[in-house]
Amino acid sequence: MRIAILSDIHDNLWNLTAAVNFSRDADVMICCGDLCSPFVIDELARFPHDVHIVFGNNDADLYRITLKASKTPNCRLYGELFVTEFDGNRFAVNHFDYIARPLAKSRDFDVVCFGHNHELEVSAQDACLLINPGCIMGAKFTGGKREDTLPSFVIYDTVLNKPTVFFIDPQSKRISEKQ
C-alpha cells in the first residue's frame, strides 16, 4: 500500500494541485492539518481515493471545513487525532510535533505522522517511524521571519517500509524525489 502524506497547505492550491496530481496512484492520502480555508477540501477531494484529515492550529473555519468535507465522500475528518491501521501498520496522525513525539514513544504505533513546524523530518524513534512531510505552503517562520522552503510531501510504501520524500518546484510545479 502506498500512502501520500502532506501537511501545512495554508491555502496554497497551486502546490497542493501538483502534489495531488502526482500522488494519484497512491492508495490513500493523509493530511496532517493546516488546510486553512474550506475551499482546500475541494482540491483534496480530487484525489481519487480516501483522504484522512486532522485539524491543525490554522484551520480557522472548522464549521465550513467540516460541512464541506461531509458532502465529499472521499474526505474524512477526525478532529485532532486519527488512529488507524494500514496494511498491518498502526498509524497515529496529529498536527503537532510536541504531541507526535510522545505518541511515538508510547510504542503503540508503527508510524506517527505530523506537521506544524514546517520542517521535513523522516526519523525513527525506537521502533516507530516519525514522518513530518514538511509543508505544501513552501515557507517556514523562524524568529518571526518568513523563510522560503521547498514545498514537500512524502509517499510511504507499507510493504517496503519506505518513505520517499518529494519536492515541488515553486515555479514549474514539477515534482522531484529527494536524493
Question: Would you kindly provide a brief summary of this structure?
Answer:
By secondary structure, the protein is an alpha/beta fold. It has helices at about 15-20, 40-45, 60-70, 95-105, and strands spanning about 1-5, 30, 50-55, 75, 80-85, 90-95, 110-115, 120-125, 130, 140, 145-150, 150-155, 160-170, 175. The protein contains 4 helices and 14 strands.
Task: Identify the strand order in the major beta sheet.
Answer: 4-3-2-1-12-13-14
Q: How would a crystallographer describe the biggest sheet? A: 7 strands, mixed
Terminal residue distance: 22 Å
User: What is the number of beta strands?
Assistant: 14
Q: How large is the radius of gyration?
A: 15 Å
Percent in strands:
25-35%
Class from secondary-structure proportions: alpha/beta
Overall outline:
globular
Count of separate DSSP helical elements: 4
Q: Approximately how much helix is present in the residues?
A: 10-25%
Q: List low-pLDDT spans.
A: none
- Reading the helices and strands in chain order gives EHEHEHEEEHEEEEEEEE
Mean pLDDT: 96
